[in-house]
Amino acid sequence: MNHIILLLALLAVFVTPTALVWLLGRRAGFPRWTLLAFLLVGWLTVFTGWSLSQRAQPFLFPDTSPCFGTRSTPVSQYFPPDSFCRHADGELRTVNGPDAKLVFWTAATTTVAMAGAAVVWRRRRV
User: Fold this and answer.
1) Is 71 exposed, middle or buried, given 0-12, 13-18 or 19+ CB atoms closer than 10 A?
2) At what angle do helices 32-54 and 98-125 cross, to 10 degrees?
3) How far is the CA of 1 from the CAs of 4, 11, 50, 55, in angstroms?
4) Count of CB atoms within 10 A of residue 95's CB?
5) Rounded CA gap, 39 and 54, in Å?
6) What is the model's pTM?
7) Spatial separation of the C-alpha atoms in residues 54 and 77, rounded to whole Å
């Protein structure tokens, strides 16, 4: 039963939005390479953002959480995605480095640029 629930969750979360974007893009006449790039970079944005916002949570990553064992409270920020440890003195210290944030912002910018390029391409074609 658990496998069926997991399969339905994967279908609802990943397959359905991907198929919907692909079918709507093909119906609008966008090139396949544009749709493929948009989907790949879009999912990279989602997974990188999730990872950045949840990295400090000790229940998700107990061995690698920077807040685990330091008696600090994990704090998540969802946009822009970041994780912090609130220490005893009340200071919030980020647990994500600048490279991880650069990956997120590059992927997010590329996702928006691909959507904009598709609109421009569609307008010029019509």
Assistant:
1) exposed
2) 150
3) 5, 15, 27, 30
4) 19
5) 22
6) 0.77
7) 9
SS3 string, the chain, reads CHHHHHHHHHHHHHHHHHHHHHHHHHHHCCCHHHHHHHHHHHHHHHHHHHHHHHCCCCCCCCCCCCCCCCCCEEEEEECCEEEEEECCCCCEEECCCHHHHHHHHHHHHHHHHHHHHHHHHHHHHC
The pLDDT of residue 23: 92
Q: Which residues is 83 bridged to in the sheet?
A: 76
Instruction: Give, in order, the Cα–Cα distances in Å from 40 to each of 17, 37, 51, 86, 111.
Output: 12, 5, 16, 34, 9
**pLDDT per residue as tens digits for the range 38-78:** 999 999 999 988 888 887 776 666 666 667 666 667 777 77
Give the up-direction half-sphere exposure of residue 36: CA atoms within 13 A in the CB hemisphere: 3
Rounded Cα distance, 125 and 64, in Å: 50
88: which 2 tokens?
């005893």
The amino acid present at 28, given as its one-letter code, is A
